[in-house]
Design brief:
This protein is mainly α. It folds into 2 domains: 186 residues, MFS general substrate transporter like domains (Growth Hormone, Chain: A); 206 residues, MFS general substrate transporter like domains (Growth Hormone, Chain: A, Up-down Bundle). It has 19 helices and no strands. Helix 12 packs across helix 15. The longest helix is centred in the first third of the chain and has 31 residues. 52% of the residues are buried.
């Protein structure tokens, strides 16, 4: 396996661990700093919003930077932000540091995926993306539980030092093993933002947003949705989430190979349809252990298997704007994740906890409809191509 891709994936592992581990240490943060759980929970919100809003902004404004320099700068900001969190004397400092860490992640993550795609031939692009994104998905299976365990041995500050160290090690790998990669060709900011006017790009991004808003509305409330299986046991719930993380990583890697072989279109449609159907049956599958495990595996395989072909599709639409498009896709993903808590809460209020999957099914089905519209536009011949077609046939 290409060690350059492994290095990029290590940075994504740090970013993903930072995204998912905070939920497990919130009670400790609240207790140590003397604040409510809800206020401490804004650590998650601010990190996600910083990541989402700054990813496309950084990609557009710093496109003239060489890729390696941008990756190293992103790691440095990310490590600094987490170190400030570990040292923070008050909740104000903690929340401010989460914005800084989100900025570092926004500098690193889209650049890493765009760099991965540029390091390999087009026919291996999806597999390269999958390897790098596997760093993100594996954080749910390994990074977050490990960080929570470290907090149990010491305190939550030790967990934040752990995230900082993982990021620093990834940065050393980027510095030592990644070759110099030139910046994108010179272009004005308006030219770099031109893909935003493309309806195909907008529809692909909306697909990502709707799909992950649905998928994470279930993840956010997984404890209450599957309480009939776990019986309220944290150990049982941790076991289900471990299965989810392992299946997520597997789905991501398999999707990379299948996308290179079959194209992203079939993978996107298949993942969305299967995920919508799976969520629709959650009120019943969440009642028994065997069906709950099956539902979680399908959910993770499809949910994380969708990300690679979505990114592959975006890069195919505008290869020269890959960093910006990866930033926009990260923004769509994190906006979807950020909105999932509110949407899931609405589902609980309107229905009941075990039926939140029905709301998720509607959102994912909507994503499938948007993906169909995107596909129709993508497959539609351009005017120039259509005009040339009669002459070629004749």
């Amino acid at each position: 396996m290409d060690r350059r891709l492994i290095v990029l994936a290590a940075g994504m592992f740090a970013v993903g661990t930072d995204s998912f581990v905070v939920a497990g240490i919130l009670p400790q943060v609240a207790g140590t700093l003397g604040v409510s759980i809800s206020l401490a929970g804004q650590m998650v919100t601010l990190y996600a919003l910083s990541y989402a809003l700054l990813s496309p902004t950084v990609a557009a404004l710093l496109a003239h930077w060489p890729r390696k320099r941008l990756l190293l700068a992103g790691v440095a900001v990310f490590v600094f932000g987490n170190a400030v969190t570990a040292l923070a004397p008050s909740i104000g400092w903690v929340l401010a540091s989460r914005v800084i860490a989100g900025l570092g992640a926004a500098m690193y993550s889209p650049t890493a995926t765009a760099t991965a795609a540029s390091l390999v031939p087009p026919e291996r692009r999806a597999r390269a993306l999958a390897i790098v994104i596997a760093g993100l998905s594996s954080a749910t299976a390994l990074g977050a539980p490990l960080g929570t365990w470290i907090a149990g041995l010491g305190d939550w500050r030790a967990t934040m030092w752990f995230v900082s160290i993982v990021g620093a090690v990834a940065g050393l790998g980027v510095w030592a093993l990644l070759p110099a990669i030139p910046a994108l060709p010179a272009a004005t900011l308006r030219q770099r933002l031109a893909p935003l006017k493309d309806a195909r790009v907008a529809l692909v991004l909306l697909t990502t947003l709707a799909a992950y808003a649905g998928a994470f509305s279930v993840y956010t409330y997984v404890g209450v949705i599957f309480d009939r299986v776990t019986g309220g046991s944290p150990t049982m719930l941790a076991g289900l989430l471990l299965v989810w993380g392992i299946a997520a990583t597997a789905g991501n890697l398999v999707a990379g190979r299948l996308t290179d072989r079959l194209g992203g279109r079939r993978i996107i449609f298949g993942a969305l349809l299967l995920m919508a159907a799976n969520f629709a049956f959650t009120p019943w599958t969440s009642a028994h252990l065997w069906s709950a495990v099956l539902a979680i595996v399908v959910w993770a395989l499809c949910g994380w298997g969708l990300l690679v072909p979505q990114q592959h599709r975006l890069i195919g639409l505008a290869p020269a704007a890959a960093p910006l498009l990866m930033g926009l896709n990260s923004a769509a993903l994190y906006i979807g994740v950020s909105s999932a808590g509110v949407l899931g809460a609405a589902g609980i209020a309107l229905l009941e906890p075990h039926s939140v999957g029905l709301l998720a099914a509607v959102l994912v089905a909507g994503a499938f409809g948007i993906a169909l519209l995107a596909d129709r536009l993508i497959r539609k011949p351009s005017p120039a191509k259509a005009a040339a077609e009669p002459a070629r046939v004749g």
